[in-house]
């Protein structure tokens, strides 16, 4: 049994600060059209947990949420 | 819910407050004393109006992310920290002083220009500008004023190239910006500077409309004017915002970073030995210096409870990014510069949907500048004691008027 987490992004809230890309460039990207968030990996490996938590913490718009789940 | 009654006049100190004499690198003592008492406090502005000053990190972030606080300077109770800022009411405004949905619509027209991938493409060009400027510094020989020769020309050259503003006009637009951002300027001086700069940009946009080039101003015209997204005044207001914000902030942040590291020689040495620490050091310097030092203005659109306090609809709020970045609840021993710590949750670029649009560009310029200065001038020293350097006390963006160095 191990902890996993799901990421959801709200592109309507996103203000394209790029904070998430700074924290976890392998999980988040920015659209070339308007810089808004693109989710590259919705269920990242647990090794990315710290980086993803930092992205949530630093997102100025509150556009990223994570749901922890235990399997 | 408990409501703290509005403070009596005597307990609403004047704001902005001065820094302690001889301690130009430290926040004003008032910031720390208010922060120790409560997350927010009443302060009195230059014209006798009251505002709430928010001094703690958690509350600052919460308020900056809350759409019940308006960034629109026309909102009732919007706090103006100086007479020069009042003239914003008389001029076409840019999206920085608008709320959603209009803010969202207008900001999104520009976000791709400043996103991390785009700025990464500009990085070689930024590095080249840095090296050229430092070639001239080296050739001139010590002592040199780094503001005049390096920290101000660097972001000015970069934002000029990005926008398509001729750099040869830098003395003119730097002078106008300095008046606009000086809280000691009277309204007439600010009006004059604003009108001259707007007139200049109107003419420039006119030329770009007739002869488009590969630059941001031309793209704004071709992509957003023809289809009616923006009118000419909007384009000029955006150009003014990007030009002023694009050079004043990074110029002062670069100069202040050099001073801060000079005041902490062991950290200068650490970065010289380990340049890979520079990106993290830039975040820590942004936090420690917090050069946007007088607070981000908002007006409450509704009654909002913040902790034990109710901010009433129509009251002004100033969020002190500097105080939030020096809150021991968020950063251990916040007065200490520690380039190895994790400072990512700082709010030096603001927070919420208005957070600095140009932050990837600012970071790239700061990282490039510090990397090159440390490599090429490893034994750099201030040519004067820090107490003798003139600091920009009355400016919206704190910093220094000159930075004399030797090596």
Please explain how this structure is put together.
The complex is a heterodimer of chains A (71) and B (407). Chain A is of the alpha+beta class and 71 residues long. Chain A is built from 2 helices and 4 strands. The model of chain A has no long low-confidence stretch (mean pLDDT 91). Helix content of chain B is 48%, strand content 8%. In chain B, the strands form 3 sheets. Chain B has a 5-stranded mixed beta sheet. In chain B, strands 4-10-9 form a 3-stranded antiparallel beta sheet. A two-stranded antiparallel sheet of chain B has the order 6-7. In chain B, strand 1 and strand 2 form a beta hairpin. In chain B, helix 8 runs antiparallel to helix 12 and helix 12 packs parallel to helix 16. Classes of the chains: A alpha+beta (71), B alpha+beta (407). Chains A and B meet through helix 1 and helix 2 of A and helix 4 and helix 5 of B.
Helix content range of chain B: 40-55%
Relative strand content of chain B = 5-15%
Output the radius of gyration of chain A: 12 Å
| Beta-strand percentage range of chain A | 25-35%
Structural class estimated from helices and strands of chain B: alpha+beta
Inertia-based shape of chain B: globular
Average of pLDDT of chain B: 95
**Could you describe the largest sheet of chain B, including whether it forms a barrel?**
5 strands, mixed
Instruction: Give the helix/strand class of chain A.
Output: alpha+beta
Series of H and E elements of chain A: EHEEHE
Oligomer category: heterodimer
Number of strands of chain B: 10
Number of helices of chain B: 16
Q: Report Rg of chain B.
A: 21 Å
Main sheet: strand order of chain A: 1-4
Overall number of strands of chain A: 4
Tally of helical runs of chain A: 2
């Amino acid at each position: 049994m191990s902890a996993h987490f799901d990421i959801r992004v709200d592109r309507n809230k996103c203000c394209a600060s790029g904070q998430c890309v700074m924290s976890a460039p392998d999980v988040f990207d920015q659209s070339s059209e308007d810089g808004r968030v693109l989710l590259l990996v919705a269920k990242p490996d647990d090794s990315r947990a710290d980086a993803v938590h930092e992205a949530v913490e630093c997102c100025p718009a509150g556009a990223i949420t994570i749901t922890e789940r235990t399997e | 819910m408990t409501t703290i009654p509005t403070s009596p006049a005597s307990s609403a100190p004047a704001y902005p407050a001065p820094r302690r004499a001889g301690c130009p690198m430290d926040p004003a003592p008032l910031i720390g004393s208010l922060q120790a008492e409560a997350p927010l406090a009443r302060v009195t502005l230059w014209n006798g109006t009251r505002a709430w000053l928010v001094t703690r990190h958690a509350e600052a972030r919460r308020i900056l992310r809350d759409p019940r606080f308006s960034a629109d300077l026309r909102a009732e109770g919007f706090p103006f920290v100086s007479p020069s800022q009042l003239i914003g009411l008389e001029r076409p405004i840019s999206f920085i002083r608008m709320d959603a949905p209009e803010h969202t619509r207008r900001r999104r027209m520009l976000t791709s220009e400043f996103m991390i991938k785009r700025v990464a493409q500009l990085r070689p060009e930024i590095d080249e500008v840095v090296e050229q400027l430092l070639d001239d510094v080296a050739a001139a020989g010590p002592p040199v004023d780094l503001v005049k020769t390096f920290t101000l020309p660097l972001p000015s050259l970069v934002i000029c190239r990005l926008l398509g503003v001729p750099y040869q006009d830098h003395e003119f637009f730097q002078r106008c910006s300095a008046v606009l951002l000086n809280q000691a300027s009277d309204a007439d001086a600010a009006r004059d500077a604003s009108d001259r700069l707007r007139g200049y940009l109107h003419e420039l946009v006119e030329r770009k409309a007739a002869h488009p080039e590969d630059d941001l101003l031309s793209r704004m015209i071709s992509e957003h004017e023809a289809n009616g997204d923006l009118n000419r005044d909007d384009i000029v207001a955006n150009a003014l915002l990007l030009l002023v914000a694009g050079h004043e902030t990074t110029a002062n942040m670069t100069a202040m970073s050099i001073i801060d590291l000079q005041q902490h020689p062991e950290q200068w040495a650490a970065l010289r030995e380990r340049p890979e620490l520079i990106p993290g050091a830039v975040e820590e310097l942004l936090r420690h210096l917090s050069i946007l030092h007088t607070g981000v203005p908002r007006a409450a659109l509704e009654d909002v409870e913040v902790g034990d306090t109710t901010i009433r609809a129509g009251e002004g709020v100033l969020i002190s990014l500097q105080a939030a970045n020096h809150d021991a609840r968020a950063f251990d021993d916040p007065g200490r510069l520690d380039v190895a710590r994790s400072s990512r949750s700082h709010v030096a670029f603001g927070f919420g949907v208005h957070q600095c649009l140009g932050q990837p560009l600012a970071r790239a310029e700061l990282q490039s500048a510090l990397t090159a200065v440390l490599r090429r001038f490893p034994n750099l020293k201030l040519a004067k004691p820090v107490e003798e350097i003139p600091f920009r006390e009355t400016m919206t963006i704190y910093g220094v008027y000159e930075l004399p160095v030797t090596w």
